[in-house]
TrEMBL record:
Classification via PANTHER family: QUORUM-QUENCHING LACTONASE YTNP-RELATED, QUORUM-QUENCHING LACTONASE YTNP-RELATED-RELATED
Family: Belongs to the metallo-beta-lactamase superfamily.
Domain Metallo-beta-lactamase residues, every copy: 64-265
InterPro entries: MBL_superfamily_lactonases, Metallo-B-lactamas, RibonucZ/Hydroxyglut_hydro
Protein's recorded name: Glyoxylase, beta-lactamase superfamily II
UniProt keyword annotation of Lipid metabolism present: no
Amino acid sequence: MAIDYLAADDENLIRARARVGDAEIIVCTDGTCRFDGGAMFGVVPKTLWSRRTQADEQNRVMLGLNCVVVRIGGKTVLIETGFGNKIAPKLKEIYCIQERLPESLAAAKISPGEVDVVINTHLHWDHCGWNTVLGGEGTAVPFFPNAQYITHAGEVEHGRRQWERDRVSYVANNYEPLIESGQMRLIHGTEADILPGIRVECFPGHTAQLMAVHIESAGEHACFISDLLPTTAHLDIGWAMGFDLDPLRTIEERKRFYARAIPERWTVIYPHDHRIPLSTVGTDDRGRLHVIESVRDIPASATEPFVVRPV
């Protein structure tokens, strides 16, 4: 893995660049948001999680909204699309939503029309919001007009049921217009190839069909792990989110993921870590999980991977 840079400034619109074999990875951003710390760390006491991230006066922690561009085999793939710009003003205020993905893509010199594939690992509102924007008549239209959108069929089914537990997270105009137009491909089963070098795999727990995205080229491997591991503060096996529908399954799926990712030294890409968007993961002599190589708060001129302290 060759990491090119990450600017220390939290306002930097390009959070990281990396190369995995012949694939170029650019971590763009929809900005930051703030979620309740208790919801983000579930049953983990605040006395523990507050050692890793700081809460504001309303007990909210800052999260990134990482949207990952992958250039591979002449194709441009975008993984996740953030909150978008269709959020009601009150919710936008509560969650401090910034709507920055278009300017982040522009900073990476990518126009919406250049994107060939958009992958939504699940359909929570903070992962698929820029799938669509409101057109002149107030109807949702694709923001990426030439892209094939991809998500799991089980996510659509779950969203349509509008369960009291999580219905606020499923916003129909982020995906239903794309299904109706035939622009969204629905995955069935637990794995699927998307393009040569890009495939998805289910890691249930956060949702029943949560997908990770594998990026493989020239013997190297990166994985956008989605909300199985939202940030580096969640590396511990048992630190599941309160949002997870099945936290016990999250724990088992993390074990399954680490059993491959650690010995094979995968580059792990996190959806909500604004300051450490990607890293490799390892264990110390006591078996504790921690970041090994990362790009944490280093100057934009840096060109080499950095070793950081354990989280």
